[in-house]
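To: structure desk
From: M.T.
Subject: fold request, one chain
Message: Could you run this one when you get a chance? Sequence is below, nothing fancy, just the single chain.
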Amino acid sequence: MKRLFLIIVCLSFLLSPSAVAQTEIERFRPGVTVEGVNYFLPKTVFEVVLTAEKAVTKPGEFAAYADRYLRLKDVPTVESTTWTLKAVSLMPYGVPDSTKAYSIKLRAKTSAPLVSLTDDGLLLAVNTDVSPDPDPELPQRVPAPKALNGRDFMTHDILAAGSTSKMAQLTAEEIYDIRDSRNALVRGDADNMPKDGAQLKLMLDNIDKQSAALESLFKGQMLTSTEVLSFDYEPSANPEEGAERHLLCRFSRKMGLVATDDLSGEPIWITVKPQGSLPAAMADAEAAKRKAKLEQGLYVNQPRRAQVTIFTATQTLLTAEFPIAQLGTVEVLSDALFNKKLETKVTLHQHTGSVKQVE
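Reply: Done. Structure tokens follow.
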């Protein structure tokens, strides 16, 4: 999974157990904030996962003689590939938001908390040790089965034939002989009948495998695999823009996932519509005074839920709701939670930066 890595200046100190002052947290300012543990709150990014079926059609060596010797019509004569989109899924994860960088000050008279961070500086927890979330598992690719090789079942006479036409004729005769042998076994008319049903099944399976391989020399074969394609999409932080339709990607029946400016692919669109409304900011003086006191606390995200819809011109591929960090607000947990009398443990959701648990 692609991640955004930012360079973080992080200076920390081992502090005296007798320190009693409250922890101070402020906005991180590069070149100015030097005595502190710097952290980021995340913005939510989606890994878009497309599951598609890829069918490769391979013509047979004797395709030109399919009608003459086996009465097979409209067999493929050139190799082709067809892609079919089967499913779309979204996997949210958090990346550092450069506009939400903060610093927990570390001073000689400060009771600094234990801080858990990811490798790229996202805040995971305060006063407790938390491991980063594991990367989500993508659907597994299913490879195509091994192609049949009709030449493995050709007789000496077929291989010794002097022309392709003669080889095709002898191969067709061999196919008819195999069919006759199979019919004799099923009817019980074969000279050497198997002793039991298990042996009969084994013989029929071998005959079917031989027949299919030789017939593929005329009618060709289709090899189908399940492919998993993925890329990242970052929802806009502007709710107005997020409500509009955006081109997510393009998908081609011949080439699969293609660039968004490649008109050979059918456009796939996405809308991100915030749900509900954010509470209005309070403008009275008393509220402003209380907010000023909170500014020294712990900054966390308050994400906003949004309905995400992915669709084409003819069908809806996905509709789901997710909390998205950049559509919400930044809130502050009071620094009173981290004074000398309290050792509050705070755990955050990694992909949104919202509070997961407070102890």
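Reply (cont.): The radius of gyration is 33 Å. Let me know if you need anything else for the meeting.
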